[in-house]
Design brief:
By secondary structure, this protein is an all-beta fold. Helix content is 0%, strand content 47%.
Length: 582
């Protein structure tokens, strides 16, 4: 373009710059449509806008801006199978003018298959159904998803999910409770083109083995496989978490591992227990769960009951424990435990089972005169595990108090006995002279009375050694039909042995014999001798009831010598003189 000026237009300006029309020429490149167009001017005019505007008419009658770009090639990916589409390119100028390209109208077909959906989890629901979840691919032209299921080594389509924004599917059969389940998803576009599938995906299938002797469960499962797609963050396993439930209660985590096996110890015996495993990715944003494995944590057979019949003091340092068990079921034996506070029990012995129902144990390391002891018995089954526990029995602690104002009066008090299945009906009080218990019952009390007062005065001539024992007597109502008794510790009473010796007697008078009177003297250790003034023995006896009648002896003063043992076990001697008068 030139400008003519001057007279008759004889003069001309310099030529203007040369402009070309924008020529749009779409080309199919791979799976995209390349919108290729020419520049208005090379280089671009200083007054031209920095960006070309690409307009697209789709659907027909509706124009939209596809893109603004400085390049002369721009790709447009189709999100439909086949469509009629119109394109035009424009470029604005600072002068207010707009240059436009040719108008292109064409029919285009999508040849690109959708990308593989990224499956982030394949998981088993509590009811055994399998659910699979995925992320929506970038492709716009996704019409539906097909679901395939691995059956006998073959992948078979089983369902179709409509809509690009669908992200999950649930296979409503509990197959995952008995084996691994392979569930796969493929995206399909509106042309029916489908992408690839990840055939490595499997549910985690957990199997359990329960050791009823060790009370532990071994769990094993297959490794979880994550999807691996170009352009998507590669996930990996952080850990497997093991969850555990008792009697349909809530699940709690009992451990975690990076392996595909786990041993859970201290499983609650005799319960309905359930397990499942949950995998967690490194970022802890995705999880997937295995099937649930439930079973009853049974135990080996053991006696149905164990009953401690009695705990009774025997001697100065021992207690006898009697036990009754159910012998219809076998066991390894019985553990005997002792406590001083009825709370903290410690093992003191073991009784090996012989197949019988009645057992006895002697605990010889106690101080029954200082404290009462509690006992219980526990069944040990054939695995060596402690099972049921018996009732608790507590021994009697007896104490005897002196009365300073009454020499022969003794105050007895004792702790109540605990443990009889039929409760305590009452207490027997025994005063044992010279270790003879056959005639020693001196009183009884009811179950609520734990004290007694005894007078020893009439027992003084009968012997020196005296012990008290209280005996608890079981009442009726024992659930096993057993009737038992329990003895307390024995408390010795030390009365000082005394001997009254007459100093004269007259065989033909009122006091015809001479006899020392003994109180609380050991009869078996008594010995008396009488001598005349020349040292000849004229009388001797080991019987404290035998008197000297002075036969064949003259009136004179005689010397006596008495040896005896008092209640404390001390050997003593008494010397003196006695006058015989005729």
């Amino acid at each position: 373009m030139v400008t003519k000026f001057g007279a008759g237009g004889a003069s001309s300006s310099r030529n203007s710059d040369t402009l070309r029309t924008i020529f749009l020429n779409p080309r199919v490149v791979g799976v995209a449509l390349a919108l290729d167009f020419t520049h208005l001017h090379t280089p671009k005019l200083l007054t031209s806008a920095p960006l070309y505007v690409i307009n697209k008419e789709y659907p027909l009658g509706t124009w939209n801006t596809l893109a603004s770009t400085s390049n002369t090639v721009y790709p447009d990916t189709l999100n439909i199978c086949i469509a009629k589409i119109n394109y035009q390119v424009s470029l604005k100028d600072a002068s207010g003018c707009t240059s436009t390209s040719n108008f292109i109208a064409g029919t285009y077909t999508n040849t690109k298959a959708p990308e593989q959906p990224y499956v982030d989890s394949i998981s088993v629901l509590p009811n055994g159904f399998t659910t699979i979840g995925w992320q929506i691919p970038l492709d716009k032209d996704i019409d539906k998803y097909t679901i395939q299921y691995l059956v006998g080594g073959t992948n078979q389509p089983i369902d179709t999910i409509k809509g690009r924004n669908s992200t999950s599917y649930t296979y409503a059969y509990p197959t995952a409770n008995t084996a691994q389940v392979g569930l796969f998803v493929k995206a399909l576009d509106s042309c029916g083109l489908g992408g690839t599938l990840n055939y490595q995906l499997r549910t985690m299938y957990v199997q359990t083995t329960y050791d009823r002797c060790a009370y532990q469960t071994t769990l094993k499962w297959n490794r979880y496989v994550w999807s691996d797609i170009r352009g998507v963050y590669p996930e990996s396993t952080k850990e497997y978490r093991i969850y555990y439930s008792i009697n349909n209660g809530g699940f709690g985590m009992v451990g975690a591992t990076s392996d595909t096996n786990f041993i859970h110890t201290n499983v609650a015996p005799g319960k309905n227990v359930c397990y499942f495993v949950r995998v967690v990715n490194q970022r802890q944003t995705i999880t997937a769960s295995s099937n649930r494995r439930c079973f009853f944590s049974d135990q080996v057979e053991a006696p149905a009951y164990i009953y401690l019949k009695t705990a009774s003091i025997v001697g100065k340092t021992s207690a006898e424990i009697k036990v009754y068990i159910d012998n219809l079921k076998s066991s390894r034996g019985i553990t005997i435990q002792r406590s001083e506070n009825e709370i903290d029990f410690k093992d003191v012995g073991f009784i090996t089972s012989t197949g019988g129902a009645h057992y006895s144990f002697s605990d010889g390391k106690i101080e029954p005169a200082k404290k009462a002891y509690s006992y219980r018995a526990l069944i040990v089954d054939s695995c060596g595990n402690t099972r049921s526990s018996s009732n608790v029995a507590r021994t009697i602690l007896l104490k005897v108090h002196e009365d300073d104002n009454q020499l022969f009066t003794k105050q007895l008090s004792w702790s109540d006995y605990k443990g009889f299945g039929g409760a305590v009906s009452g207490y027997n009080i025994y005063r044992i002279l010279n270790e003879d218990i056959s005639t020693a019952l001196v009183g009884t009390t009811d179950a609520l009375t734990t004290y007694f007062t005894d007078n020893l005065e009439n027992s003084a001539p009968r012997g020196a050694r005296i012990d008290y024992v209280v005996q608890a007597v079981e009442g009726i109502g024992n659930p096993y039909g057993i009737f038992e008794m329990s003895n307390s510790n024995a408390v010795p009473v030390y009365m000082e042995g005394t001997i009254f010796v007459p100093n004269a007697f007259a065989p033909e008078g009122v006091n015809t014999t001479w006899l020392p009177i003994t109180h609380f003297v050991e009869k078996a250790e008594y010995h008396v001798s009488v001598f005349n003034r020349w040292g000849k023995k004229v009388f001797e006896s080991h019987d404290d009831k035998r008197a000297w009648d002075g036969a064949d002896c003259i009136s004179d003063v005689y010397v006596y010598l008495i040896d005896y043992k008092n209640a404390r076990g001390e050997y003593l001697q008494v010397k003196g003189t006695v006058s015989l008068m005729r």
